[in-house]
Amino acid sequence: MKRRIPKQGLASPPPSSSSSVQRRVHSQRKDSRPFSWWLKWGLLALFVVFIVLPCTVKVLPNLIQHYVYAHRLRVPFFADLSRPDEFSLNHTINMYLTSEEGISLGVWFSWWLKWGLLALFVVFIVLPYTVKVLPNLIQHYVYAHRLRVPFFADLSRPDEFSLNHTINMYLTPEEGISLGVWHTVPASQWKEAQGKDLAWYQDSLGAGGPVFIYLHGNLGTRSAPHRMGVAKILSGLGYHVLVPDYRGFGDSTGEPTEDGLTTDALYLYNWVKARSRNSLIVIWGHSLGTGVATNMAVELVKQGVVLDGVILEGIFNAARQNIPFHPFIWYYWKYPGIGYLFKEPWAENKVVFPTEENLKQMRSPVLFLHSEDDHLVPISIPQQLHEVAASVQGAERVKMVTFEGSLGYLHNGLYRDPRLPGIIKEFVQSLEG
Fold this sequence. Notes:
The protein is of the alpha/beta class. The protein folds into two domains: about 50-135, no CATH class; about 150-430, Alpha/Beta hydrolase fold, catalytic domain (Rossmann fold, 3-Layer(aba) Sandwich). Helices cover about 40% and strands about 15% of the residues. The protein has helices spanning about 15-30, 35-60, 60-70, 110-135, 135-145, 200-205, 225-235, 260-275, 290-300, 330, 340, 355-360, 380-395, 420-430; strands spanning about 95-100, 105-110, 165-170, 180-185, 210-215, 240-245, 280-285, 310-315, 365-370, 400-405. An eight-stranded mixed β-sheet has the order 3-4-6-5-7-8-9-10, sandwiched between helices. The protein has a two-stranded antiparallel ribbon with strand order 1-2. Helix 8 crosses helix 9 (about 290-300), helix 9 runs parallel beside helix 12 (about 355-360) and helix 12 packs parallel to helix 13. It is elongated and about 110 Å long. The N and C termini lie far apart (about 100 Å).
């Protein structure tokens, strides 16, 4: 245990008794004074702050304004403000305006003042008025005339995308909505298809061969490489393929909504059905298209119609997946900064896609296709949905094919697998039998 040792040195002598007595007397004399200087000044300060000052502000405002504002110091000192040229403004004139009697306003007028006032007028009056009062007009010019990707691509010319036996057409599912659609005939007819018009393509649908309607995923257009890859595979197998761009996608007009996309798919199905006689019609949905496909399948069941077959590639389940952003957010952000002018313009565009519930109501044969390394939809999602569909229709009518993750197909690359044509052909043959 350490001990504290005091420093060695001379000890201070104890205070004398006389000095101690004097300090006690002085202290008693100081504490016993009833009214000291700080008390006087404190009361005076309170009087000024709480009585004099409020009275002055309330009772004499004109006097205060006169002495505070009218006779204030001016900076810079000794500056002649009537001579703007002395301030290197050789294109500015000084003038005096009279706003009220006895009031003279000194004004410098220059080009930047004009444009500055115009900018303030636009920013604080024109723009807020336009945003609040004319939302429909803004939506028309921002959304309807948005930029499209790929840039400068003419989707009305499928031959420019190496599809030389394909025709482009536009359908109208609703008033004011135009859908761009590519129709590719079987590859065996590519020579015969050269130079043929829309009527020939429509008549070819009734030749008896299977017809596929491919409902693509989110983002991009019907010209995306993986979508054209699927179309070429199906055409090579001897099938007709129709690939639409939903409303708001590609060169199709309108705003994308869940109901709108479902309406587009239903219209195209009925259009094909009316022209294909008794041909087999198969719906192939990829990613977002799986939600559209199951929606339309349930709507047709309500009408007493059962689809011949459904292929669901890269299927998602909104009820069990956390989708961190709105699927159609790309549509509203085509112009940079639009999200700052409109707070979540997609807020009213609700998207549900109840795929799991739809599968419980569907009565069509279903084929699930999924890659084990899908980076957007984990393999557990289609496995769970496959079990749901199989529990309702039976394992004979609901099949699932998975592709090894080592192949690197991810979400969009299944069309590259050499086994895919055989898998599709086998599925179609099971539907025909």
